[in-house]
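To illustrate the input format used throughout this study, we show a single complete record. The first block contains the structure-token representation of the backbone; no residue identities are included at this stage. The design step must infer an amino acid for every position from geometry alone.
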């Protein structure tokens, strides 16, 4: 029963994070904390290793693509990693970045490169979709 409650709340909170990120361009710290507390409904000690993904993203943001990855996105990934673990978080990020890349390429078809580079896409909707895909694949395997 806890996993069903976790799944519902996880979906609601990630959806809310996506909406807030689209409207304000920020993801509140309290929302990230709420997501991380969902891990208590179905706690697995090895999911704490998922916090390493936040470190990897932070290093990427600081050294490779400064000003492109916000602190809210990193905190969101850290919070989600406690719930779904390192591997699922990594797959979720890959899926999310894949989707945002496809959207960016689609935008290039209709606008000039200069117009597209001026536009900043919020990452939370794409990351949230990637996380939900990997989350439901993961719990589907545990429920089967």
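Output of the design step:
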């Amino acid at each position: 029963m806890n996993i069903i409650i976790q799944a519902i709340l996880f979906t609601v909170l990630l959806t809310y994070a996506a909406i807030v990120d689209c409207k304000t361009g920020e993801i509140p710290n309290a929302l990230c904390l709420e997501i991380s507390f969902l891990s208590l409904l179905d706690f697995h000690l090895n999911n704490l290793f998922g916090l390493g993904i936040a470190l990897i993203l932070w290093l990427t943001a600081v050294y490779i693509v400064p000003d492109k990855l916000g602190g809210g996105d990193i905190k969101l990934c850290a919070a989600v990693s406690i719930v779904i673990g390192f591997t699922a978080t990594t797959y979720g990020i890959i899926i999310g970045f894949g989707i945002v890349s496809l959207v960016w390429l689609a935008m290039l078809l209709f606008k000039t490169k200069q117009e597209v580079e001026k536009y900043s896409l919020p990452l939370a909707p794409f990351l949230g979709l990637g996380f939900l895909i990997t989350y439901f694949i993961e719990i589907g395997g545990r429920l089967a």
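Structural context for interpreting the output: The chain has six helices and no strands. The chain has a mean pLDDT of 87.
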